[in-house]
Amino acid sequence: MTLFRSLIAVVAVQTAAFAGSVKNPSTTQPAPASSSFSDANSLSEYFLGKDNAWDATYDSIQQWKKDTGIHIGIGADHWWHVDTGGHLYGNGYGVPGEGGTYRYNLTIDVPLKLSDDGFLKEIGLHALERIRDSDDKLRSFYRDTKWSYEAYAYAKTSVGTFKVGQIPLDFGIGWNNSWWEGVGYFDGYKFNPAYGVSWENVWKASDTFSINTTVQYFLQDDRVSGAIAGADAESTPPLSERNTFAAHIVPTWKLSEDTKLSWGLSGLERQIHNAGVAGISNHQTVWGSDLTLAVGKFSIFGEYTDSHGVITPARYVSGGPSDRQNSISTGIAYKFGPITPRLSFSKGWDHNPSGHQYIFNPGVTIQIAKNLTLYTEYVKWEVTDRAGKTSPYDDGVEFALVWNF
Fold it and tell me: Is residue 139 part of a domain?
């Protein structure tokens, strides 16, 4: 019933907005449905046509933002969990400790275009704020149930984009196409903002070769991360991360009209403020490499990450002060119209003391409309500590309904 109510609520908002944007609905004729399912971008486009009311409403809102200069967006992630391997969390909207709506999002952009030909092309402000509607914090180390994920000023220039403020770390492949994510996310290398500066640039050497480069410096962490408690210093108060230098370089070769190969290299060096906790390293050094091949609607990737340093007194994997953590992740996906079947797998190891974990995550992404996506996936996540005890962290089916305006 909760899923049904959420769908009805989204439809109601869409319909209300559409009703106000169309001057004469009685004369509006729907466009024909897409002739091919594989060519459709969404289910709404395939069944109702490209100019259907649902997608037209979204387009009209985006155009209104552009025309008025009011760049404000809202959205949410709604999450349902179903146990499949016996009772673990129970079935319902969220899980114990993370009840209620997973998160609501508010995006604010204030762009100012200056010149297409000069050195300084655009300046602006960007913010992405998030909130939960329950008393459960997204992670135990968060300061509150509302938090800032991005808040920075930027300048787009002829030599790249500069940012200053709260900026997400760019390390390795940013997203593995799933809603649940993998080991790299829970270890703190994905969707992890901090306070600092960055420079991003795309150097296009030719029509078939380019290099994406990101260089970042973070003064201080912000206690906001996808990592779970005990993954790193940021997720283990009173420890903290300071003076982080990070770089990500990704050469890309266009092998044919529909084939691209990208090979990325990442590096990170930071100071660990131990706050008087014994046995913690002063520095953490991390390096990684990633490879992505995209052929038409098919894609496959692989990634390796290697971290050195004692970054927490009790890693959530080994249960002790491990001085090295490394991991691999891989995944494949094929986009068939509005449906994308996919499979991802990641495995991580702790050393001295030892432990290991893996996350197996097959799923399907369904693009219901331009701004409405359903993620359906099975997650098997097991963690084995230094004593050889294996604990299930997840064994169930996840449904995530994500929308935005």
Answer: yes
Is 89 among the domain residues?
A: yes
Average pLDDT, the chain: 91
Can you tell me the distance from the alpha carbon of 128 to that of 106, in angstroms, rounded to the nearest whole number?
6
Indicate the residue type of 188: G
The total domain count for the chain is 1
Give pLDDT tens digits for 57-91.
899 999 998 888 889 999 999 999 999 988 899 99
First CA to last CA distance, the chain: 24
Backbone conformation region of residue 370, classed left if phi is above 0, alpha if psi is from -120 to 50, else beta = alpha
* pLDDT at residue 2 in the model: 41
| Calpha distance 91→88 (Å, rounded) | 9
Q: Which residues pair with 288 in a beta bridge?
A: 266, 305
pTM of the prediction? Answer: 0.89
Find, among 289, 318, 291, the residue nearest to 390 by Cα: 318
Mutual angle of helices 2-21 and 53-68, in 10-degree steps:
60
Q: Give the tens place of pLDDT for each residue, 23-53.
A: 333 344 555 555 689 889 999 999 998 888 8
Domain span holding position 334: 70-404
Residue 256 sits in a domain whose CATH number is 2.40.160.10
64 located within any domain:
no
Q: Is residue 181 part of a domain?
A: yes
Taking alpha carbons only, the member of 131, 127, 132 closest to residue 167 is: 127
Q: What SS3 class is residue 186?
A: helix
Residue with tokens 């992670």: 139
CA distance 350 to 387: 12
